[in-house]
């Protein structure tokens, strides 16, 4: 696999708001200046992103690299103890931590320079919880911790002693371009707690890489490429990549990528190899629509989304230009047996899936409105639900379970135009799932 490595030019994207992060399985021990009996220290439990931030539902999570047990504290200490019995005691300290590391097929790899954080926190509210959470089709949040430990080397009759710990928080904020085929990751590293000999000297090196079809590095931040971590001082780096999807009306031509952060921690009092941990972004899909014949519609430059996020298509019954259509959809969701597109969190919820085939969409429309007056009353349209341009339309999955009403044609067509733009902004391809949310 082609691998390119270059320095990234400093920058945090305006409005960048994504946290993607490493989930530490570590349970460490925090020590005093001369640690007595270590007490367990674990990262806080994962919490959910607040309801007001939810723009949809994440249906899948990308599997993270499995922990490398050869670097775990139990393995490192056991290995050092065995070595002391055969080769005798050795000077210096040993270090260990429990994090995620795994080899990857690399398409593009960038060394990220770390600069002092400028205080502009790109995290959206509520994204500071442990774990991964997609906030929208273009924003991903993750955060996590690693507990780094320094131990004395064991002697034949003396077990190792804990002489320092450092809790390092690593946040990654992923932002995708829905109007341009690029995506970026901001990495924020902060030592939140430190004790004993780990309060000074611990350095971090960060790389971000892109894997998948036809992704390449774009630019990245400068700054220190091996930064000593200071208690309470956050350091930030940035990397951007681009994709090269071809213009196509086929979903199979879309390209898929993911970003991986690799953070290496090392302390000068040890001769252990640097401790390396990795974490991946959620899966990214990039596509490019065919040129349009409409002179008033600009050609698509391509764009990228988190395709495992099923977004909410939201309409209001009281504001906007499609209030009557919104009210009809609410009635239709209640009246149909499958309550199409209504999200309750239950196992039987039925999402809608976009249908790009106009011929099938017309068949859905005809089937749904076959009982409506024809010709229609002046100024009225037959509004069908589920939408004709979905696989749940009346001639397909929704056969026998659809709903229609006569709606003011201006209101109905305003909704259609709004949904067309919403499809484009969310890069909804044929078969993509979504929910329909009606608000007051």
Automatic annotation (TrEMBL):
<dbReference type="Pfam" id="PF14040">
    <property type="entry name" value="DNase_NucA_NucB"/>
</dbReference>
<feature type="signal peptide">
    <location>
        <begin position="1"/>
        <end position="31"/>
    </location>
</feature>
<protein>
    <recommendedName>
        <fullName>Deoxyribonuclease NucA/NucB domain-containing protein</fullName>
    </recommendedName>
</protein>
<feature type="region of interest" description="Disordered">
    <location>
        <begin position="29"/>
        <end position="84"/>
    </location>
</feature>
<feature type="domain" description="Deoxyribonuclease NucA/NucB">
    <location>
        <begin position="359"/>
        <end position="436"/>
    </location>
</feature>
<dbReference type="InterPro" id="IPR029476">
    <property type="entry name" value="DNase_NucA_NucB"/>
</dbReference>
<keyword id="KW-0732">Signal</keyword>
């Amino acid at each position: 696999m082609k691998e390119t490595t270059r320095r990234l030019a400093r920058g945090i994207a305006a409005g960048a708001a994504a946290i993607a992060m490493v989930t530490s399985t570590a349970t460490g021990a925090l020590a005093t200046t001369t640690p007595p009996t270590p007490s367990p220290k674990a990262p806080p439990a994962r919490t959910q992103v607040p309801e007001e931030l939810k723009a949809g539902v994440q249906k899948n999570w990308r599997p993270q690299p499995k922990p490398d047990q050869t670097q775990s504290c139990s393995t490192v200490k056991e290995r050092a103890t065995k070595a002391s019995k055969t080769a005798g005691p050795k000077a210096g300290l040993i270090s260990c931590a429990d994090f995620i590391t795994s080899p990857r097929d690399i398409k593009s790899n960038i060394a990220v320079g770390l600069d002092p954080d400028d205080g502009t926190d790109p995290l959206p509210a509520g994204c500071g919880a442990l774990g991964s959470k997609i906030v929208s089709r273009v924003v991903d949040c993750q955060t996590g911790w690693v507990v780094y430990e320094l131990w004395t080397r064991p002697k034949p009759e003396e077990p190792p002693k804990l002489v320092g710990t450092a809790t390092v928080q690593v946040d990654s904020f992923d932002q995708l371009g829905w109007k341009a085929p690029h995506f970026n990751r901001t990495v924020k590293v902060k030592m939140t707690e430190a004790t004993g000999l780990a309060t000074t000297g611990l350095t971090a090196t960060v790389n971000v890489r892109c894997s998948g079809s036809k992704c390449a590095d774009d630019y990245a931040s400068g700054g220190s490429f091996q930064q000593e971590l200071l208690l309470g001082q956050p350091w930030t780096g940035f990397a951007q990549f681009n994709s090269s999807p071809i213009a196509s009306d086929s979903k199979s031509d879309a390209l898929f990528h993911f970003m991986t952060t690799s953070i290496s921690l090392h302390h000068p009092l040890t001769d252990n190899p640097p401790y390396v941990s990795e974490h991946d972004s959620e899966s990214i899909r990039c596509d490019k629509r065919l040129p349009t014949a409409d002179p008033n519609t600009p050609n698509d430059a391509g764009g990228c989304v988190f395709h495992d996020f099923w977004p909410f298509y939201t309409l209001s019954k009281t504001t906007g230009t499609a209030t009557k259509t919104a009210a009809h959809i609410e009635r239709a969701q209640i009246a149909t047996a499958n309550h199409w597109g209504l999200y309750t969190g239950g196992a039987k919820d039925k999402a809608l899936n976009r249908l790009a085939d106009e011929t099938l969409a017309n068949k859905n429309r005809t089937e749904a409105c076959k009982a409506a007056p024809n010709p229609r009353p002046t100024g009225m349209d037959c509004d069908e639900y589920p939408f004709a341009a979905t696989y749940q339309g009346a001639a397909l999955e929704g056969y026998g379970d659809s709903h229609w009403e006569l709606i003011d044609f201006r209101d109905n067509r305003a909704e259609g135009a709004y949904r067309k733009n919403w499809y484009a902004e969310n890069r909804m391809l044929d078969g993509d799932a979504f929910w329909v949310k009606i608000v007051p």
